[in-house]
Every structure is written in C-alpha cells, then in structure tokens.
Write a structure and sequence with these properties.
- The complex is a heterodimer of chains A (338) and B (169).
- By secondary structure, chain A is an alpha/beta fold.
- Chain A folds into two domains: 8-125 and 285-309, 3-Layer(aba) Sandwich (Rossmann fold), CATH 3.40.50; 129-282, 3-Layer(aba) Sandwich (Rossmann fold).
- Helices cover 40% and strands 14% of the residues of chain A.
- In chain A, α10 links the parallel β8 (216-219) and β9.
- Chain B has two domains: 27-109, Aspartate carbamoyltransferase regulatory subunit, N-terminal domain (Alpha-Beta Plaits, 2-Layer Sandwich), CATH 3.30.70.140; 115-164, SH3 type barrels, CATH 2.30.30.
- By secondary structure, chain B is an alpha+beta fold.
- In chain B, the strands form two sheets. A five-stranded antiparallel sheet of chain B has the order 2-3-1-4-5, covered by helices on one side. In chain B, strands 6-7-8-9 form a four-stranded antiparallel sheet, with helices on one face.
- The chains are: A alpha/beta (338), B alpha+beta (169).
- Bound molecules: zinc ion.
- The site of zinc ion (ZN) has 8 residues of chain B, from loops.
Chain lengths: 338, 169
C-alpha cells in the first residue's frame, strides 16, 4: 500500500509509530514551509466542519494549501455524477485527497480511481483512521500504549471511530473492554477482524463493574435514531452517561476520551477533573494530521513499503489488476496510474 | 466413464449407477451437488427450461462420497466463470463435466476462489457498491462465508443468505 490511508486494519504497529513519532517531533502550533506549494483536496460529501478545518489547518501549517471541493461536489452529486468520476477529476487538481462520504467502503473504492494519496476521513459506519491516529497519540502521551486496560463505550455498532480504534489497538498490549447496550454491540465484520488479530477483548453491558480496572475510557455518543422510541433511548443512553460521581470509582489515573462533539454523554462536571482529556485529544488533531499529511505529500507514500501489511496490500493490488483484466469496468486510463 | 464405453451418461461416476437419464450431446453435467440443492442451483443459474433446452435433474441419488447427491444435465449450455464461482460457494463439492459430442471434454472440481467479483450483491444498503458506481461488487472468500472488499460486510455464513444475494450480471 503505502499510498493511501483507508482503514485502521491496514495499520501495523510500525505504521502507527511512524506517524506518532513524526507528530511528537512537531511543535504544536508551529508552522513550517516543508510542503510549500502542495495542494490538498478536501472532498466532504457529509458535513463535518471540524474535521475539514483540522485538515485545512494542518496542510496550511505545513506551508501548503487546501482546495475545498464541497460546493462543486454538491452540484455534481445532484447531477448524478459518480464518486469514481468525481475523485478521478479532483485527483488531477491536488497532490492528495481527503474524503468524507456517507457510504461504507467509499474510500476504498475511490482509491481505485486516483493516483494521488487518498485519506479516509470517515466512510459511513465504516472507518475513521485519522481520528484513530490522534486518539492513539493522545493515549500514548498520557499513559503510553502498552500494558493498558482500555474501555470503549457507547454506540459500538455504528461508531466508525470505535471500529478503527479497536482494530488499531490490536497492535499493542492492550485489553479492550467493550461496553454497550446489547443492540449496539460491535458489528460482525469488526469482531471478525479482532478475532483474526487475536485481540484481547471482552464485552460488557454494565460500565460500573469494569470502570475500576480501566486506564482509559473512550466514550462515544448513543444517537436517538438508533432506537424505536424516545423513552427507550432515554433509558438506555442514561445508563452509559458519565459524570463526576460516576468516576469516583475509577482509578485516579484514568483518562476519559471522546471524539467530540459530545451532547450529554459526558456531563460538564467531568471537564474540571484530571480525567478529562477530550479537549487535549481534539487539539492533537491538527498536529497528528500535519504528521500524516507531511508523510503523504512527501512522495514516498504514507507508510513504509517494506512493512508486512503493506506487502499484503500489494497483493490486493495484484488481485485488483486481475479483476480489471477479467472484464472489470474501470476504464483504460487506470493503466497510467502506476 | 470407466467400462461403459466412455460416453455413457456423460461422466457419471461409478457411484451413480442408479441414475439413468438421457445422455446429452453438448452441454454440462453438474455432479456431486449436495442432495436437495439441484433446484436452487438451477435457479441461481437462471435455468428454468423456458429456452427449450433439455434439462435432466436427478435428486437424492445414492452417492458413496456424499450419501445423497443431486445431478444436473443441461443441454447446450456451458457455464461462465462467474457461474462456476457461484457454484463453488453454494455447492463446493460439485464437479462439472463439459460434454461435447457425447464425450466428456473436461471434468473438474469447482475451486473455491480467493475472491469473487460480479456474482453477489452486497447486503449492506449503505455500501458504496449499492449505488451506481462503476465497480463490480467484489467479495473475499473466507473459510466460512464471503466478505465485501469495500464495506467489509460478511455474508453467507448462512447459505440461504448467500443464495439470496446471488446476482450474476
Ligand atoms: Zn459492501
């Protein structure tokens, strides 16, 4: 692979450490001209001001610039243009693309049509690997990345940040405690990958019983639309709400994280405790994305190509080539891309 | 096959001596389909006899290897690679005999491929392949079931579920 960042499953420990080490070497809030002249294409088919601005800030702090295709997208999409066509065109305008899209698998598919590095900034209920890198960075800065008990709670079924984080954590010596209502457990595909990776994972419906054992508690929002009626939503969501009183049973060193924005799943009285790391986590977003973009725009691909998982990705590319030869329908110009 | 002049029954193996159906001149014999699955296989292949072709089906024929097996003989029809791929998923024990001028011209087991493309639709309505993107839906073949390479949804650990999503374009 090397070129794209599509999901957390492709990340080896070495890949993660490469990005995190690079981020740690950057001064937060500093600017350079390392990537002067580089142009980042932002393709957001779903509103996410925060993530979009974080990428834009990151590329500008590297000396590059961003072009936001949002407005163009909206008009093309209403005319029924395919995502494949859109990214093929936009890939010609920019040195790297960032894609946010409501459909699962959108980034993987789009990557087959572009020659520039493509970064998945969220694909439906799929993956959100750049969030994961900043999550891992925040965890590492606070408590290291090995010998940890990490609890992940909230909507594990549809939460793409959870899917990516859980898969990436399999690279480290981490026991995962997945805490959710029965109806919002991890989807089968993620369980399958965790199982394949030999991950240490236990599932729980009750937060209180595992809280004292945790070093990290990662909280995500349970959304109203996942439930048939308001009453049921209130009852269930209430059981997973965190406030300062909840955390009295926790270790003093527990850190509480959240991908933000939050609604009421973490009460504001937690903000003043030493547990709260979610604002620090959010501010790490620019630094980590700077590191990632610096690697992506550096011409060698995002990840080292001698890496074992990267080699597996090359195999995938071979398979894909074969598909095309066998009557795939992806057009002739694909040949020029490699 | 052996001891029967080579062409009798178009590739019936020794254990199906109880099956006597018309031999075909040109076409395909699909043998060693799990007992009871023949009509499903015909459905998946889109064969319903409406084209006037001769189709013979033997169901629950005693078999040494499978206990009971189904055998299908389809005149004037050879399977495409996509059809063979689907067959490999729903009837992994099957053998395919290609018959030309009453002779078995080729006989092979269906191989379970590592990947199938353009033969199944993804069950996930939010998958990028559900729209009109110019890609064939593609699945990695797992030990059990298959998995969409785009959205990673796993399908077909239950065979009925798999059959529901067969979509040979
Ligand atoms: Zn899919």
């Amino acid at each position: 692979m090397g070129r794209h960042l599509l999901g957390a499953k492709q990340l080896s420990r070495a890949d993660v450490e490469r990005v995190l080490d690079h981020a740690a070497a950057l001064d937060p809030g500093s600017s350079t001209d390392r990537r002067s002249g580089a142009l980042l294409g932002l393709c957001f088919f779903e509103p996410s001001t925060r993530t979009r601005l974080s990428f834009e800030a990151a590329v500008k702090r590297l000396g590059g610039d961003a072009i936001d295709m949002g407005a163009i997208e909206a008009s093309s999409v209403t005319k029924g243009e395919t995502l494949a066509d859109t990214v093929r065109v936009l890939g010609g305008y920019a040195d790297a693309l960032v894609l946010r899209h409501p459909s699962q698998g959108a980034a993987r598919m789009a990557s087959e049509f572009v020659s520039v590095p493509l970064i998945n900034a969220g694909d439906g209920a799929g993956q959100h690997p750049t969030q994961t890198l900043l999550d891992l960075y925040t965890i590492r800065e606070n408590v290291g990345l090995d010998g940890l008990n990490i609890g992940i709670t909230g909507d594990l079924k549809y939460g793409r940040t959870v899917h990516s984080l859980s898969l990436a954590l399999t690279n480290f010596d981490v026991s995962q405690y997945l805490i959710s209502p029965e109806s919002l457990r991890l989807p089968r595909s993620v369980r399958y990958d965790l199982d394949e990776a030999g991950a240490s994972v236990t599932e729980h419906t009750d937060l209180e019983s595992v809280l004292p054992d945790l070093d990290v508690l990662y909280v995500t929002r349970i959304q109203r639309e996942r439930f048939p009626d308001e009453a049921e939503y209130r009852t269930v969501a209430g059981e997973y709400r965190i406030d300062a009183a909840t955390l009295e049973d926790a270790s003093d060193d527990l850190i509480v994280m959240h991908p933000l924005p939050r609604v009421d799943e973490i009460a504001s009285d937690v903000d003043e405790t030493s547990h709260a790391k979610y604002f620090e986590q959010a501010s790490n977003g620019v630094t980590v994305r700077m590191a990632l973009l610096d690697l992506a725009l550096g011409g060698d691909g995002i990840f080292a190509e001698d890496d074992a998982r990267s080699l597996a990705e090359w195999d995938d590319e071979d398979k894909r080539d074969e598909r095309e030869r066998n009557g795939g329908n992806q057009g002739d110009e694909r040949e020029e891309e490699r | 096959m052996s001891g029967r002049g080579g062409d009798v029954g178009n590739g019936q193996s020794d254990d199906d001596h109880e099956l006597r159906v018309t031999k075909i001149r040109n076409g395909t014999v699909i043998d060693h389909v799990s007992g009871g699955l023949a009509l499903t296989v015909l459905g998946v292949l889109g064969i319903d006899g409406s084209a006037g072709e001769v189709v013979s089906v033997g169901m629950n024929v005693p078999s040494d290897r499978l206990g009971r097996k189904d055998v299908l003989k389809i005149e004037k029809r050879e399977l495409t690679q996509n059809e063979v791929d689907v067959l490999s998923l729903i009837a992994p024990e099957a053998t395919i005999n290609i018959v030309r001028e009453y002779e078995v011209a080729g006989k092979h087991r269906v191989d379970r491929p590592e990947e199938v493309s353009g033969v199944l639709s993804c069950p996930n309505p939010d998958c990028i392949t559900a729209g009109n993107e110019p890609v064939a839906s593609t699945f990695d073949v797992l030990d059990e079931g298959v998995r969409c390479v785009y959205c990673e949804t796993i399908l077909g650990t239950d065979q009925a579920d798999l059959i529901d999503h067969v979509d040979i374009g």
